Amino acid sequence: MSTLTIRLPDDTTERLKALAHRRGLSLNKLMEELSAQALAAWDTENHFRTLAATGNVEQALAILDRLDAKPVDGESEVAR
Predict the structure, then answer these.
(1) Does residue 5 fall inside a structural domain?
(2) Residue 56 has what pLDDT?
(3) What SUPFAM superfamilies does UniProt report for this protein, alphabetically (predicted)?
(4) 5-9, 11-15, 57-61: which has the minimum mean pLDDT?
(5) Is residue 20 situated within a structural domain?
């Protein structure tokens, strides 16, 4: 495990401490959780960018057209 020193404005530090306290976490555990969320979002974005770069635009648009043509459960064609 690594140790990381970061510089934050005092008010940001105090707000993060308050958030950690409210969640019943240490500041360290809160930062670990927030980091994991940020990395998961980044990984998801990269995954979709990779899929988009290798995808077939015509096929994707055809799928969207088919989805647009199907009524949603409980929705009439008129409501669309």
Answers:
(1) no
(2) 86
(3) Ribbon-helix-helix
(4) 57-61
(5) yes
Give the Å distances, CA to CA, from 75 to 63, 64, 65, 71. 20, 18, 17, 6
The answer to the question of residue 74 being in a domain is no
Record the pTM. 0.63
Q: Are 60 and 51 in contact (CB under 8 A)?
A: no
Question: What is the domain extent for residue 16?
Answer: 10-69
Asked whether the beta carbons of 40 and 47 are under 8 A apart, the reply is no
Burial pattern 52-75, b for ≥16 Cβ within 10 A else e, equals: eeeeeeeeeeeeeeeeeeeeeeee
Number of domains in the chain: 1
pLDDT on residue 46: 93
